[in-house]
Amino acid sequence: MAAKAGRERETYRHGDLRNALLQAGIALAREGGRDAIVLREATRRAGVVPNAAYRHFASRQDLIDAVRAAALAELAQAMEAEMAAVPAGSVPAEAARAGLRAVGAGYLRFAREQTGLFQVTFPFPNDPRGEADPAKAGPGGLNPFQLLGLALDRLVAAGVLPAERRPGAEFLAWSAVHGLALLAIDGPLRHVPAPFTAQLGQRLLDMVEQGL
Fold first, then answer.
1. What are the backbone dihedrals phi and psi of residue 67, each rounded to the nearest 5 degrees, phi first?
2. In angstroms, rounded to a whole number, what is the distance separating the alpha carbons of residues 25 and 42?
3. I need a surface site. Which of 14, 22, 26, 107 has the fewest CB within 10 A?
4. Do domains 2-58 and 69-211 have the same CATH topology?
C-alpha cells in the first residue's frame, strides 16, 4: 500500500493524473493508432496502478475519446499552419483558392506524418459541423471541419464559388481528400514512394478546387 501511494504521489508531483494518462494515451496512439490505446498501459506509463485510471476515465472508450479530441486539435493546428503560410496581400480570389488548398494540404500532411493520431480521429460519432468542443479545436478556436467550412465561405465571399453551390460542399471536398489519405495509409498507395503520393495529393487538391 505504501509503495502504491508513493507511485501515485510521484505522478501527482509532476502534474495532474488525468493529463498524465491523456499524454500517455496520445503517445500510444502515435505509436499504433486506436488499437494501441489501452488503459493498463497508459497507467503503467503514467506510473500509477491500473485502478487509479478509473477516477478520471471510466472506461477505455473514455480515454480514446479524450485522445481523439487531442488528435483533432493537432490536426486543426496543422491545417492552420498551412493556412497561415498563404502570402498576405494576395488578390482575394487567389487567396481564397490558396486557403482551400492549404486546408487540404494540412490534412494530408497530418495524415502522412501523424498516421497513428490521424487514425484515432475517425469515425465521427456525430455531424462534425456541430462539434463545438474547444478541446477539438486548433489555436484559432475551430475544429478541422470548421476550418474547411471557413475556407469554403471565403471562396463564396471572393466570388469564386457560387453561393448556391456552397451547401454540402464540405462533404465533397472532405470525402476526396480523406479518401486519398486512407489509400496512402491502408490502401494500395501505402507501397508507393512518398514523392509520387505527394504529387497525387497536389493533383487531388487541383481537382477539388476546380470541381467546386
1. -65, -40
2. 6
3. 14
4. no
CATH number for region 2-58: 1.10.10
Q: What percent of the chain has pLDDT over 70?
A: 89
Per-domain residue ranges of the chain: 2-58, 69-211
Residue type, 59: S
Model confidence pLDDT, tens digit, residues 18-47: 999 999 999 999 999 999 999 999 999 988
In this structure, which amino acid lies at residue 192? V
Q: Which residue intervals of the chain are DSSP H helices?
A: 2-13, 17-32, 39-46, 60-84, 92-113, 115-120, 144-157, 169-186, 194-211
Structure confidence by residue, pLDDT tens digits, 55-114: 899 899 999 999 999 999 999 999 999 999 998 777 999 999 999 999 999 999 999 999
Distance separating alpha carbons of residues 1 and 6, to the nearest angstrom? 8
- 33 phi and psi angles, rounded to 5 deg: 75, -165
| CA dihedral for 103, 106, 111, 117, sign (positive or negative) | negative
Which residue has cell 502504491?
A: 4
- Identify the CA nearest to 56 among candidates 97, 103, 8, 21: 21
